[in-house]
Design goal:
There is one protein chain. By secondary structure, the protein is an alpha/beta fold. Among the domains are: about 140 residues, NAD(P)-binding Rossmann-like Domain (Rossmann fold); about 80 residues, no CATH class. The protein is built from twelve helices and 17 strands. The chain is globular, with a radius of gyration of 23 Å. The structure holds flavin-adenine dinucleotide and uridine-5'-diphosphate.
């Protein structure tokens, strides 16, 4: 798709109404676009994919089932600010995600809870009994540096090997001990029967899907969107050339042409399948994890998430790989160190009017709500710097 690149003009430090180029139409780019447009600026959003919504993109598959092309996305947040903001663009379907792990030929709740321990070991422990059990098996660690430290410290070696080591090896191509603590720390351990994957105050699914949410987010007279447009093809010598400011939500190392070396990202191959004319859904809950079997980490059945009524059902399996689109920054000490060097370069770019925001641009293992929070925060700071536009 063609895009007019305006001729080069001097970049004003402050201006009433500015021209912004936003690279990426995911949560980071689309939230920034909306905030900047509402503040009176002109915004041109480009995305190299043929659709908006970034990795949260959903669509009806060829059978008419609403599916997430890039794997299951469940919205959850403790931030009233983020929830209220997105609620301007969507109603919500109440949904609490539940996950079972296939371990020792049983399907048991993950996060590990009372049911998990009792089912796995044929016990009938109450909450205090589960706490005592975990106290007995855990390997206390003073310094929780890696994900292995986190898991051993909370559930000990046997449960670590059953639930975490294999899954992590598959998902990241690395051992638990090679990943930062924050990765495994996403999964709590419980002594009660709570089998929800998330416990956030707000959780659910956009009532008409994520893509519809994004259509509304980007529906503003000052926002223009060009799809199938790679910013690298528009870029001239000066990255901001033709615009006053740039918001960049792609991979940070790619922005700098990888001059300091490639930042590793983990990718996934998605295997979507459909089962026609089912009497019942195929999985007992939204997602089943497979820590120790198969090449895929988990399988998700979308109708659990969306509540869609349909004669058939669609599911997706996730096969982790190093090749393909960047989906996950890989949280490990050496990657953090390389990112810090790129971040220093990004800070220098800020003086040229470039803002880096989002999961790929900030190399953070962000959930959707954290990306929206980061984008709102970045725009608040940026707009405070700029003179108030005329047409607010
Ligand atoms: P993205 O969504 O990746 O958007 C970046 C966009 O920039 C992309 O569309 C890309 O095409 C575009 N782009 C990059 N470079 C260029 C360029 N040079 N020119 C033009 N366009 C460019 N979060 C949750 O909160 N809950 C979940 O359940 C959840 N599940 C997930 C499951 C999977 C399998 C994955 C991979 C992620 C999941 N996430 C989940 C995380 C969520 O996807 C991200 O936090 C969020 O989508 C990131 O938004 P973003 O805008 O930063 O990046
Ligand atoms: N994890 C695991 N076993 C599981 C679930 C999660 O080992 O059954 C570990 C694994 O390292 C995974 C991380 O915890 O990558 C975070 O899991 P989460 O479900 O949050 O991953 P995401 O949805 O972001 O892929």
């Amino acid at each position: 798709m063609d895009v007019d690149v305006a001729s080069s003009t001097p970049v004003p430090a402050r201006s009433l109404s500015m021209r912004f180029l936003v690279v990426g139409a995911g949560f980071a780019g689309a939230t920034c676009a909306r905030q900047l447009a509402e503040a009176g600026h002109d915004v041109h959003v480009v995305d190299r994919r043929e659709h908006i919504a970034g990795n949260a993109y959903d669509h009806l598959d060829e059978h008419g089932v609403l599916v997430h092309r890039y794997g299951p996305h469940i919205f959850h947040t403790n931030s009233d600010k983020v929830f209220d903001y997105l609620s301007r663009f969507t109603a919500w379907r109440a949904y609490e995600h539940r996950v079972l792990a296939s371990v020792d030929n049983k399907r048991v709740p993950i996060p590990i809870n009372r049911t998990t321990i009792n089912t796995l070991y044929g016990l009938d422990l109450d909450e205090a009994g589960v706490a005592a059990f975990l106290e007995r098996v855990r390997e206390p660690r003073e310094n929780l540096r890696t994900s292995e430290d986190v898991v051993l410290n909370s559930v000990g070696r046997e449960l670590c090997d059953k639930f975490f080591r294999g899954y992590t090896r598959k998902q990241w191509g690395r051992d638990l001990g090679e990943l930062s603590a924050g990765v495994a720390a996403r999964i709590p351990t419980r002594t009660n029967d709570d089998d929800r994957y998330f416990t956030d105050r707000h959780q659910g699914m956009p009532a008409e899907g994520y893509t519809r949410l994004f259509e509304r987010l980007l529906d503003h007279p000052a926002i223009r969107v060009s799809l199938e447009t790679d910013w690298r093809d528009l870029r001239q010598d000066d990255p901001v050339d033709g615009w006053d400011r740039l918001v960049y939500s792609g991979p940070i190392d790619e922005y700098f042409g990888g001059v300091l070396g490639k930042l590793p990202y983990r990718s996934l191959r998605f295997e979507h399948r459909h089962v026609a004319d089912v009497d019942a859904l195929q999985l007992p809950v939204g997602t089943v994890n497979h820590p120790n079997e198969h090449g895929y980490t988990r399988e998700t059945e979308f109708r659990h998430l969306t509540g869609q009524d349909h004669a058939g059902t669609s599911l997706v399996r996730e096969f982790p790989t190093d090749e393909g689109d960047p989906y996950y920054p890989i949280p490990a000490a050496e990657n953090e160190a390389l990112y810090k060097q790129y971040q220093a370069m990004a800070e220098a770019e800020a003086t040229r009017g470039v803002l880096f925001v989002g999961r790929l641009a900030q190399y953070r293992y962000y959930n959707m709500d954290q990306v929206v929070a980061a984008a709102l925060h970045a725009c608040e700071e940026l707009l405070a710097e700029l003179a108030p536009p005329v047409n607010t």
